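Quick one: structure tokens for this chain, please?
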Amino acid sequence: MGRMTRWVLGAVGLWLAAPACTSAVSEKAEAGEAVVRRFFQALPSGDCAVLGPMLVEGQGLSSCEDTVKDLREHDLHLVDIVEAKVDGRDPNAVLVRARVSQGGKERQEPYFFRVERQAEGWRLRL
């Protein structure tokens, strides 16, 4: 096999692999966006049986009850997702940039939410 043939076959292999990589990144971003949307749709209920499994839990993090209480006290609501992309430092994390309202007024600057893949699925870190 000549040098040119190997180069062409290598380039074709890279080209064929690219859509799969792009697809995986896109699926992660969509999963991160979906978690943020589901969380804010369920937030008015205040039900941690529903909201808790959507949140990252661990030492040093607020409980679901405290997180929900804080968000509801600040009257935080999701307006829309601006962008969701895989964190360049961690392939198991998605950064979601969103427009939110607080106290009925849309904030000028977007919020950034981090969604992490854990054994149980994708979870929001607040």
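The radius of gyration is 19 Å.
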